[in-house]
Specification:
The protein is an alpha/beta fold. It contains 10 helices and 10 strands. Strands 1-2-3-5-7-10 form a 6-stranded mixed β-sheet, with helices on both faces. It has a 4-stranded mixed β-sheet with strand order 4-6-8-9. β2, α1 and β3 form a beta-alpha-beta unit. α2 runs parallel beside α3, α4 packs across α5 and α8 runs antiparallel to α9. The two termini are about 30 Å apart.
Amino acid sequence: MPFQNLLTSYKDRIQYIIINRESKLNALNKATLAELHTAFHEALHNPEVGGVIITGAGQKAFAAGADIAEFESMDIEGAREMARRGKTLVFDLVENAAKPVIAAINGFALGGGLELAMACHIRIAADTAKMGLPEVSLGLIPGYGGTQRLTHLIGRGRALELIMTGDMITAPEAYQFGLVNHIANQEGLLEKAEEILNKILSRGPLAVASAITAVNAALQEKVNGFEIEIEHFSKSFGSEDFQEGVSAFLQRRKPIFKGK
């Protein structure tokens, strides 16, 4: 379907989603979040799509937070509904996707923009990118899971410092903290994202989906991640992909996985 705030394209099993509000530094307003839900839902249910790369239009911003103008007339209940709905329909959808999602952070990733990148499975940043959660400068805190995901990624002390100061950090600092997996120059950013995603797509898709589920279980309260891992490990033995993987290994050839 056509989007007003996104650009999408497809190439060799990779679905590209580009936040296309360059004049607004790709800020995430309500309409853009709604379109992101639709775009991800379609990609995750399209059997031709193996994984997703998300980035921002231009070179200035991945997504520079929320559209603050939408906050002006919002009350407590409205804010609660906005946060819960956005978290469920976009950020949790991305985090729990059964297909790999890579964020190519091409510029500023601030507030909701960084929260979106953190929901992705892997983050690659341009060497000029800057990241932060500046909500306290507006008298707010992150509302789309940022306090939780940042803490899981970089630890309590660093998360508290970044959130309480509202400071931005550079791509090298984000790499040092463990917030991003790789740094690339602006021209090679998407190439690096494609390189990693194509490597993942050469592996067993059912195993990749199980790995996402098992790793995410480690971050969920009242869920025994070890049991989730055992369940998915054992279930793998009943798949055609497992049989193909073992046969290919013994025959010293590359496996041809079918996701069955």
